[in-house]
Amino acid sequence: MLPAMEQRVDNMDEAATVGERLVRNAWSAVQLGYTLLWTAGWVSVALLLLAVSGNRRLALRMAARCWAPGLLWGSKVTVVGLERVDWSKPHLLVANHQSMIDICALFHAVPGPLHFLLKQEMQRVPFVGGYARATGMLFIDREDRRAGPRMRREAATLLRQGATLCLFPEGTRSRTGFVAPFKGGAFQSAIDAGAEVVPVALDGTGAVLPVDGFFRGRPGPIRVEFGAPLPVRDGNGPVDRQALAARAHAEVVALLRRPG
User: Fold this and answer.
1) Do 76 and 191 contact (CB within 8 A), yes or no?
2) What does pLDDT average to in each consecutive run of 10 residues of the chain (260 residues)?
3) In this structure, are residues 227 and 176 in contact, taking their beta carbons and an 8 Å threshold?
């Protein structure tokens, strides 16, 4: 009888495991559906207001005030270092990249209209692509070698116009929390425009919405910390972009190591 009982217990454990997996997958599907509907709804409202008013600033602030908070999954967001930056001036924000909701956390934290450099594929995402194009976001095709110089010119123009632009110079999301070296090319746009570079550390977003696995968000602490702006010129003229990228990377890593 003992082997039969053990087999029955094993079957029950397996059934429980399958049941738990089904529940998790169902909840993930609900979360994904909510995300899509929430995004579609607010993008539609923003684009309608943009069409009526022609005011991009209003459409961008709606992302910060309405759309982004609804996709942080009830997480407490702590913002540190806002006073280190003169937000009346244009800046290039460079942040580490842990999760898709990094954009939500940054929209929520930055006290003004914010533009992003996005990968080309985002243009094909329903609603999101249309919103990004209409509000003046920039795109880069990572497979096109000619895209880099064009992107740098467009980014420099946007910065000269007074915008705050954010990008993720690692080039991809981190699965371990390790901050990969920053690519130097995008820093040239800040140098050309004379706009200071602000290092930004994002901590906790990877736990709230992990990179791996099916879509699954959960509340958790998120910290967004802004470092002191880095100058793009010194006594000898424009700084070297690779040196600027390395310094920004070191600043972000240092910010992440500070106690939360």
Assistant:
1) no
2) 46 60 85 93 94 92 93 94 96 95 96 93 89 93 78 94 95 82 93 97 93 82 98 93 97 89
3) no
Q: Tell if the pTM clears 0.85, that is, is over it.
A: yes
d(CA 19, CA 122): 35
Question: In terms of Cα–Cα distance, which of 179, 218, 197, 183 is closest to 71?
Answer: 218
Structural element, H or E, at residue 208: helix 205-208
Q: What residue ranges do the domains of the chain occupy?
A: 2-257
The dihedrals phi and psi of 168, each to the nearest 5 degrees, come to -115, 95
Q: Residue 160 phi/psi, 5° resolution?
A: -60, -30
Question: Does domain 2-257 correspond to CATH entry 3.40.1130?
Answer: yes
Instruction: Determine phi and psi for 201, rounding to 5 degrees.
Output: -105, 125
Give me 234's structure tokens.
């010194």
Secondary structure letter of residue 122 according to DSSP: G
Q: Which of 66, 105, 110, 111 is nearest to 220 (CA)?
A: 105
Residue for token digits 């942080």?
Answer: 72
Q: CA-CA distance, 121 to 131, in Å (whole number)?
A: 14
